[in-house]
Design brief:
The complex is a heterodimer.
Chain A lengths: L2 E10 L3 E13 L9 E11 L3 E2 L2 E2 L3 E2 L1 H15 L8 E6 L9 H12 L3 E5 L1 H11 L2 H8 L3 E6 L4 E7 L2 E8 L6 E3 L5 E4 L17 H18 L7 H6 L13 E5 L19 H10 L7 E3 L6 H8 L2 E3 L5 E3 L5 E8 L12 E4 L7 H14 L5 E5 L4 H11 L6 E4 L9 E4 L8 E5 L6
Parallel strand pairs in A: 1-7, 7-8, 9-14, 14-15, 18-19, 19-20, 20-21
Antiparallel strand pairs in A: 1-2, 2-3, 2-4, 5-6, 9-10, 10-11, 12-13, 16-23, 17-21, 18-22, 22-23
Helix pairs in contact in A: 1-2, 3-8, 5-7, 9-10
Chain B lengths: L2 H15 L51 H8 L17 H19 L5 H5 L3 E4 L5 H6 L9 H10 L6 E6 L4 H21 L8 E4 L5 H9 L3 E7 L10 E7 L10 E7 L6 H18 L4 H7 L1
Parallel strand pairs in B: 1-3, 2-3, 2-4
Antiparallel strand pairs in B: 4-5, 5-6
Chain lengths: 440, 302
């Protein structure tokens, strides 16, 4: 069974915009005499774009048109077409996610890039994708060590705590290489609002290496705090990205990715990029972060985009149920079944966890409950247990014949997530579980 | 070395061998205490010892001094195989030995025990029996486990009057425990799935002393288009409750084994019975549409 999906990843970051194409190979892991079990067996990167500067229009807008041109050009270079792209994700990260039109651009671009290319955002998801893209989860699994991964980009540092290969905690700090920008003469051209009250550099000031060092040291001390190498102060809370919360954690190893990670093991002249990135990298190397074991990710500046391209889509279980559904389904909010009595106007994915061993009478009873509660519109159900086909058909027995019903299993959902479901791949369905948190 | 030297060397060796030193290392073993020491026990008379079969094999870890115990334990969670059972000298530990024998006994029990007399009645199944008259005969005469005598044949004929599209047969096979645990959950979901697809079925049969081939005889008798035999599989040491579905398009006595499509490993740790039932319903729809089962279906679907 040599099926594969072509998956695109696009990361529109604070500084850079990148694209990759990867091939997700799918195999049936079950024996010939068992119920099939499709899995993504391999993720192979087939194309990496150049690193483009994220096109902006003025200070508050993302230049959607230029982004579209970038995608179109890169598709052409890769020899891919919109129609040949099966899945993938676009993520808008760091400071760019705070731009006024971020949300609109994100959804427009995801449609532009392919039918089942999904729009994602949110610091927690970024952290997950960056850690996976850098291979930090694999490193932790292989060594059995607890890893704190830091993806230090232009505007933010995405943090992920990984135990035994599983991401157990995520967080985000406003620590990045482009919080202050200056021109060739050393005149400051931009100071990020997140630094307000933390340093007194202003646009138009003349900046020295010394000042850049001071700012970098301040930012690095926040990173030291979050891995419990330095006592926690107010600073950590001040630099936490809105909507995130990460108490200091202890880890065996610290792993780095993101553009700044490239300046950790290598000396870059401080003025090279017209930002604080090179000095920030140097200060990280000199800091407590690198006093014990640390590693650079398999991928550094490309970690997030590779995460988006290779690790956003997963496969459902291989026995699922659907009828009257037009794929792809996009941006369906996930709600725990039974818990929320709130009326949802739009369709939601009802998630059912901890069902125990399914027997027929309990499955039938659950189907009754579902049909009684969800009186009209489509029924979308997601269960952890391998029982989707039985549950889906039980619902179908009780509901009107023309009702759209979709029931997938073997999916673990994140809280406050959204789900996208693509065209079937053999007996399974590609699924993207994501968050959509824009902080503007 | 000359002859004389050689002779004296041999003489020297011979003299050493007569000193009464043990010729084999280890033969000087002397038990530290000649009598076995009776240790106190945690149990009072009349207490039951804990049931060794209740321990989860994936969590039962007995190896001492592993390089990385945590990883070993994690690896064990991925397989029901008896890894990490440690050792006492060159042998199994007592617990490992007891568990192995308990699992083996459960497997044997499951072959030799009967599905209860009430099973068919309680579940509304038509109960029939192959030519076998006992478990012993069933085990020694596979041919008889595939045939019905005229009396049982008539019972089937009377129960299933019209030619059904699909005939479902539940057979004890080599594990009664598998049928008791899974058959009815699987059947309920399977019937729902067939009904949803508008596929007509005959009244379900329960066949005692049933081999997979009994379904072929049912095909001869009923003239069904497809037979689906849910049968208890030969038990192993992982589970004694594994059931399979053997699906044959246009069954008849003597049909080739390669014409069967199999769904195996239906049990709590494998594919849950209800989910398997729903899957089999879909598979049956495909087989009816393609008009082929077994190896031919694999080729067709590819």
């Amino acid at each position: 069974m040599g099926e594969s999906l072509l998956s695109v990843g696009l990361d529109v970051g604070t500084t850079s915009t990148q694209m990759i194409l990867s091939k997700l190979n799918i195999e049936n892991k079950a024996g010939a005499f068992s119920v099939p079990e499709m899995e993504i067996s391999e993720r192979e990167i087939v194309y990496k774009s150049e690193v483009h500067f994220t096109p902006l229009r003025g200070a508050d807008l993302v230049d959607a048109e230029k982004l579209r041109t970038i995608i179109a050009d890169e598709y052409k270079k890769a020899g891919a077409e919109r129609t040949s792209v099966d899945t993938g994700a676009i993520i808008i990260t760091g400071e760019t996610s705070r731009k006024e039109n971020a949300d609109a651009v994100l959804h427009e671009l995801s449609d532009f890039a392919g039918d089942f290319v999904v729009a994602t955002a949110g610091p927690d998801l970024e952290s997950v994708l960056a850690a996976k893209g850098a291979g930090a989860d694999k490193f932790s699994e292989k060594t059995g060590k607890t890893v704190l991964h830091m993806d230090i980009g232009g505007g933010t540092s995405n943090l992920a705590l990984i135990k035994d290969g599983r991401i157990v905690k995520t967080g985000c700090l406003n620590v990045g290489g482009r919080l202050v920008k200056f021109d060739e003469a050393g005149k400051v051209t931009y100071v990020s609002p997140v630094l307000r009250g933390l340093c007194d550099v202003c646009v138009g000031d003349h900046i020295t290496e010394r000042t850049v060092e001071d700012i970098s040291k301040l930012l690095v001390s926040a990173l030291e705090m979050v891995c419990a190498k330095r006592g926690e102060t107010e600073l950590l809370r001040k630099l936490a990205t809105e909507g995130t919360d990460m108490a200091p954690v202890q880890a065996d190893v610290i792993s780095f990715s993101g553009g700044v990670a490239d300046c950790i093991d290598r000396d870059v002249p401080w003025r090279q990029y017209g930002d604080i990135g090179p000095v920030l990298g140097r200060e990280i190397r000199k800091s407590l972060l690198c006093s014990e074991e640390y590693v650079l990710g398999e991928e550094t500046i490309r970690a997030t985009v590779i995460g988006a391209g290779c690790h956003s889509a997963q496969l459902s279980g291989s026995t699922v149920f659907y009828q009257n559904i037009t794929f792809p389904l996009k941006n369906i909010p996930v709600v725990k079944f039974g818990e929320s009595a709130k009326l949802h106007e739009d369709a939601v994915f009802w998630s059912i966890e901890d069902f125990g061993l399914p027997d027929y009478s309990r499955v039938a009873a659950l189907a009754d409950e579902i049909v009684n509660r969800v009186k009209s519109g489509p029924v979308y159900i997601c269960v952890e247990r391998d029982m989707a086909k039985a549950l889906g058909q039980a619902v179908a027995m009780k509901a009107a014949k023309d009702r759209p019903i979709l029931c997938v299993d073997r999916i673990k959902l994140l809280p406050e997530s959204y789900m996208d479901v693509g065209e079937p791949v053999g007996p399974a369905l590609p699924v993207v579980i994501k968050t959509l948190v824009l902080s503007n | 070395m000359n002859k004389q030297e050689l002779t004296s060397l041999v003489a020297e060796i011979l003299s050493q061998m007569n000193t009464g030193e043990p010729a084999v290392k280890g033969s000087d073993y002397k038990p530290a205490s000649p009598e076995p020491v009776r240790k106190g026990t945690d149990y009072a008379d009349g207490d039951f010892v804990p049931d060794v079969t209740e321990l989860d094999l994936r969590k039962l870890y007995l190896t001492e001094g592993a390089e990385n115990e945590e990883k070993f334990r994690k690896m064990k969670m991925k397989t029901p195989a008896r890894l990490g059972s440690g050792r006492a000298g060159a042998r199994y530990k007592t617990l490992t030995m007891l568990r192995f024998r308990a699992d083996h006994a459960a497997a044997q029990d499951s072959v030799f025990s009967q599905v209860s007399e009430d099973f068919a009645k309680e579940n509304g199944l038509v109960a029939v029996q192959t030519e076998c008259q006992s478990k012993d005969e069933y085990l020694t005469r596979p041919d008889k486990g595939r045939r019905f005598d005229s009396e049982n044949e008539k019972m089937i004929r009377d129960a299933i009057i019209e030619k059904p599209t699909v005939q479902i047969v539940i057979g004890d096979g080599l594990s009664s425990a598998a049928i008791t645990a899974n058959a009815m959950d699987c059947l309920a979901a399977l019937k729902d799935g067939l009904k949803l697809r508008g596929i007509q079925t005959g009244k379900e049969l329960f066949v005692r002393y049933c081999r997979v081939g009994a379904g072929d005889a049912v095909g001869d008798i009923t003239g069904c288009e497809l037979v689906c035999v849910l049968v208890g599989e030969r038990p192993g040491l992982v589970t004694d409750k594994s059931m399979s579905a053997y699906i044959t398009y246009k069954p008849y006595t003597g049909v080739s084994e390669s014409a069967r499509t199999v769904v195996s490993n239906i049990h709590a740790q494998g594919t849950p019975a209800v989910e398997a039932g729903a899957y089999i319903a879909e598979l049956i729809e495909t087989i009816l549409r393609k008009k082929v089962s077994g190896v031919g279906l694999h080729a067709e679907v590819k």
